[in-house]
């Protein structure tokens, strides 16, 4: 037989557990608003047969044109001249103003997401023009403008700035499991106390 005091205790326990999980979801929600890189051209780890004319980065959210930076560097982290970023919605493009010798280059970016959180990352691509020579090993590329600003993340997807989709799904699954467990416990207790 279910007593008046035990039934509310189970319900209160289940409600407290559900409230705790929901509190975690509310706290985690702003982290999902951080911007991430959707696509890039040239792509990460791409090998190109010649110099790209531009670098285009497309993000998941609109960009603030005044807070968008894209930097191209070559061997020895020497900055390669590019045009200013042109931002249209969630896409930013910079023109590559010179010819790139064969070698590996790094695209570094820093943007601001909808919640005001800065997101940065970088990725490499390679120029391998069979008709051109390799970049000199000790000398900066022609027109180099000095070392690039440091980039804290080497992450083309902008991860590491929140729970992300996988973390959010895990929290939702945890909440569902806790709720199902509380309902199951309540039913079990009702059945076990019947005469």
Write structural notes for this entry:
The strands form 2 sheets. This protein has a 5-stranded mixed beta sheet, with no helix packed on it. Strands 1-3-7-6 form a 4-stranded antiparallel beta sheet, with no helix packed on it. It starts with 5 loop residues before the first helix and ends with a helix. The relative contact order is 0.22. Helix 1 packs antiparallel against helix 2. About 18% of the residues have low confidence. It is an alpha+beta fold.
* Topology pattern, helix = H, strand = E: HEEEEEEEEEH
In quaternary terms, these chains amount to single chain
Query: What is CATH's topology name of the largest domain?
Result: Immunoglobulin-like
Shape: elongated
Our Rg estimate from Cα atoms comes to 26 Å
Low-confidence stretches: 27-31, 137-167
CATH class of the largest domain: Mainly Beta
**Secondary structure tally: strands:** 9
Helix content: 25-40%
Quick tags:
2 helices; 9 strands; Immunoglobulin-like; five-stranded mixed β-sheet; four-stranded antiparallel β-sheet; single chain; 195 residues; alpha+beta; 2 domains
Give a brief rundown of this model.
By secondary structure, the chain is an alpha+beta fold.
Topology at a glance:
Layout: H1 6-28, E1 37-41, E2 47-48, E3 54-59, E4 69-73, E5 79-80, E6 86-88, E7 91-95, E8 103-112, E9 118-127, H2 164-192
Parallel strand pairs: 2-9
Antiparallel strand pairs: 1-3, 3-7, 4-5, 4-8, 6-7, 8-9
């Amino acid at each position: 037989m279910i007593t008046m005091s035990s039934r509310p205790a189970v319900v209160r326990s289940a409600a407290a557990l559900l409230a705790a999980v929901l509190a975690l979801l509310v706290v985690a929600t702003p982290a999902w608003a951080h911007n991430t890189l959707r696509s890039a051209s040239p792509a990460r780890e791409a090998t190109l047969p010649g110099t790209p004319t531009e670098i285009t980065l497309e993000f998941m959210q609109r960009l603030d044109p005044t807070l968008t930076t894209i930097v191209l560097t070559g061997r020895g982290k020497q900055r390669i001249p590019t045009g200013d970023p042109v931002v249209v919605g969630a896409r930013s493009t910079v023109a590559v103003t010179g010819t790139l010798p064969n070698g590996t280059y790094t695209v570094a970016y820093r943007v601001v997401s909808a919640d005001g959180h800065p997101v940065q990352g970088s990725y490499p691509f390679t120029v391998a023009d069979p008709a051109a020579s390799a970049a000199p090993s000790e000398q900066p590329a022609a027109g180099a403008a000095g070392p690039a600003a440091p980039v804290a993340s080497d992450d083309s997807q902008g991860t590491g700035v929140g729970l992300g989709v996988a973390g959010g799904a895990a929290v939702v699954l945890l909440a569902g499991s806790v709720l199902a467990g509380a309902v199951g416990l309540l039913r079990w207790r009702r059945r076990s106390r019947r005469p």
